[in-house]
Design a protein that fits this description.
With 517 residues, this protein is mostly helical. It has 2 domains: 254 residues, no CATH class; 126 residues, no CATH class. The chain has 22 helices and 2 strands. The chain has a two-stranded antiparallel ribbon. A hairpin with a 2-residue loop joins β1 and β2. α2 crosses α4, α5 runs antiparallel to α6 and α6 packs antiparallel against α16. The longest helix has 30 residues. It is globular. It starts with 11 loop residues before the first helix and ends in a 6-residue tail after the last helix. The N terminus is likely disordered.
Length: 517
């Protein structure tokens, strides 16, 4: 029998992206009693533009209720977020409103939120998966390893969570990764409108999320240094970014009377304003304790949920020391500089400014670049490739479950728990309190409704394990070690805490409206 029959289909990466998109759309963690102020702030802007022809969200606030994530300026209310997602939601809302007979009340916030989540978070995450697959190919990594790493990005990092929720992080990630891919190709094959497209994507990333400036600048420097016609291409790239940045400046001017004044300078919520008024927009001097919390804590820790991303550190060093080419050395230096900037930002931002979130969500735009760098270790000598493979086999399945469980149960967790996976997410799931979704809408109980999701995740992880080289015994031992680590984390309940118990009971009874008995 021909060995070729066992090779993956030519379009497997498209099927992978579709599977991750489907999984991200399965659950719908949205609970009206709690609301989701960060998401609704963006959604209100979409409604205001379409229904009221205004950037002020006074109308949606009056019609649907006040939320905490607001900016107030000269007696009018505005979204306090970067306006990109709210603007991008306009064509989606117009289409949905047209289908509903132009009756805004026929499309509740929950319906519009689901639509915007799918198109503005889920699809961009799937797009990042496809772009990662392409860029890993540029590193001359074989197809099976590329499939593993792209799948790991999609389900074993917080990119999965923020592909479910309506934040700007994943759309910004797609813009940044797309700009890098366009600039990298232009450096090899000059021509066309590549510099204009790259500049447009970098500007759009800023329109989606202000903090992407930490990646926009290093990537812009990379694009300029590697451009074949440096001056001409730089001017073309500058021209490309004028439209999104001009739109951003116009929005700021109309809402806050200055092109550089953002909603964070005019927060309506007193406690939020106090946080952002201290230091520079809520940022103070970098602190090692805050950095440790953002990297390793069970609530916010990037490496707690995705410890395999620690491999990016030696990978970036290896890429810069022994790159495929001089241009790739510039790329690794740019990504390394952006990573340092993001970590300094994380160590400077007061913890109260992060809100209820799973992991350090502001780092999402940096994640695909960290995953890309890990590919360097898989193409080095046998020693590095072998130990990197073993680490991935142990840590990626652990990460996938650690990310999926809180996403499926509540979309995250409150910051009150010492080990929220064991003390909050597992207890919710064990009592049958799970997010609504496709299965519950079809009439199944929460447990049965969640079953297809977990079957898909476990099947995907099993398929991923087959992508990496190694003996069956070695892979089995690695997976068993992964399950052991997972069991320790998921079942290591902390000492009973009355505050945690009150919060859990409040979420179960008042927010999720489920019967914990």
């Amino acid at each position: 029998m021909s060995k070729r029959r066992f090779l993956p289909p030519r379009r497997t990466h498209w099927l992978l992206a579709a599977a991750i998109l489907g999984m991200s759309a399965w659950f719908f963690p949205y609970f009206p009693p709690l609301g989701s102020p960060n998401e609704l702030s963006r959604l209100y802007l979409t409604r205001a533009i379409v229904d009221d022809g205004s950037f002020s969200i006074d109308g949606p606030v009056a019609r649907y209720g006040r939320i905490t994530d607001l900016a107030s300026y000269e007696g009018r209310l505005h979204s306090d977020k970067a306006p990109g997602i709210g603007m991008a939601g306009v064509p989606l809302y117009v289409a949905a409103k047209a289908l509903a007979g132009w009756d805004a009340e026929a499309l509740p916030n929950s319906g519009l939120l689901r639509l915007m989540r799918f198109f503005l978070s889920g699809i961009p995450t799937a797009g990042c998966v496809l772009l990662l697959f392409y860029l890993l190919g540029r590193l001359e990594i074989d197809r099976d390893k590329r499939l593993f790493l792209t799948a790991a990005y999609g389900v074993a990092t917080i990119a999965f969570t923020y592909g479910v929720l309506l934040f700007g992080h994943q759309t910004a990630s797609l813009c940044l990764l797309g700009a890098f891919a366009v600039a990298e190709r232009h450096g090899r094959k000059p021509g066309g409108l590549a510099p204009v497209v790259a500049g447009f994507l970098l500007g759009t990333a800023l329109l989606m999320e202000y903090t992407t400036i930490l990646l926009v600048v290093p990537l812009a420097i990379y694009a300029i240094i590697t451009a074949p016609r440096r001056l001409r291409d730089s001017l073309a790239g500058l021209g490309g970014c004028l439209l999104p940045l001009g739109l951003l400046a116009l929005y700021h001017t109309l809402c806050f009377s200055h092109p550089l004044s953002t909603g964070y300078a005019h927060l309506a919520h007193r406690s939020f304003a106090e946080v952002h008024d201290s230091g520079l927009m809520g940022m103070v001097s970098p602190d090692l304790k805050r950095l440790g919390i953002i990297l390793a804590s069970p609530t916010k820790g990037l490496l707690f949920f995705s410890p395999w991303l620690l491999l990016a550190l030696p990978a970036l060093v290896a890429g810069a020391v022994r790159p495929l080419s001089v241009k790739w050395r510039v790329a690794w230096l740019a990504i390394g500089a952006a990573t340092i900037l993001y970590l300094l930002f994380s160590a400077s931002l007061q913890l109260s400014a992060w809100g209820w979130s799973l992991g350090p969500r502001h780092l999402c735009p940096c994640l695909p670049f960290l995953v890309l760098s890990i590919g360097v270790l898989l193409r080095r000598g046998p020693f590095w490739a072998s130990w990197t493979t073993r680490a991935l086999l142990v840590l990626v399945p652990f990460s996938a479950v650690a990310i999926a469980l809180p996403t499926a149960s509540f979309g995250g967790f409150p910051p009150d728990f010492s080990n929220p996976l064991a003390d909050f997410s597992m207890r919710l799931a064990g009592s049958g309190c799970l997010s609504p979704g496709v299965g519950t809408w079809l009439g199944f109980s929460p447990g049965w409704a969640a079953l297809p999701f977990w079957i898909c995740l476990v099947s995907l992880l099993g398929w991923m394990v087959t992508r990496l080289p190694g003996s069956r015994l070695e892979k089995t031992l690695c997976v068993l070690l992964s399950l052991s680590l997972l069991a320790v984390v998921l079942f290591s309940r902390g000492p009973e805490n009355p505050r945690e118990e009150r919060t859990l009971r409040w979420v179960q009874q008042d927010i999720m409206k489920c019967d914990p008995s």
